[in-house]
Amino acid sequence: MTQKSALFKNLPSPTIGNMMEVMKLEIFPPNDIIIKIGSEIGEVYFISSGAVAIMTSDGKELCHLADGEEFGTNCLFFQKRKYAVVGIETTEVFIIDKNQLIEFLHLYPDVINGFYRSIKQKLAKLKNLEECATTTSQFNF
Fold first, then answer.
1. SS3 state of residue 62
2. CA nearest 73: which of 104, 56, 95, 103?
3. Do residues 57 and 37 touch, judged by C-beta distance below 8 A?
4. pLDDT tens for residues 99-118?
5. Out of 49-63, 68-82, 98-112, which region has the weakest mean confidence (pLDDT)?
6. What are the φ and ψ backbone dihedral angles of 64, each rounded to 5 degrees?
7. DSSP secondary-structure letter at 137?
8. Is 37 a member of any domain?
9. What's the confidence (pLDDT) of residue 141?
10. How confident is the model at residue 5 (pLDDT cuts 50, 70, 90)?
11. Which of 25, 62, 89, 125 has the largest CB neighbor count within 10 A?
């Protein structure tokens, strides 16, 4: 996972090791709802293996995320989950509390700024995908 994640590529090995010590590992079976829309936010998930789908409140699938990608990062900007996350296949994730993540990253301003920019770009992409899905569904007969 650490070799595949853009965030971890920019951090020193000791910091990554310290982060891995506080992360918890969870395995989700296919079709398991990992994150529900509207649930309280507090953790960031890093996919070690497997794949998930990002879903809207009306069940539209916006995109897939796989090995090395993260989700739940909107917790750094919002209080509630905007999208659901559902396992497509058996998915192994490492989970870290958002406050612990920020604590580790605060020593690396370039890394955290790049991570925030990446999150904002992903959120904008999801918003665009959601708008496209809504527009497309209005024209389906």
1. strand
2. 95
3. yes
4. 999 999 999 999 888 888 88
5. 68-82
6. -115, 145
7. H
8. yes
9. 46
10. confident
11. 62
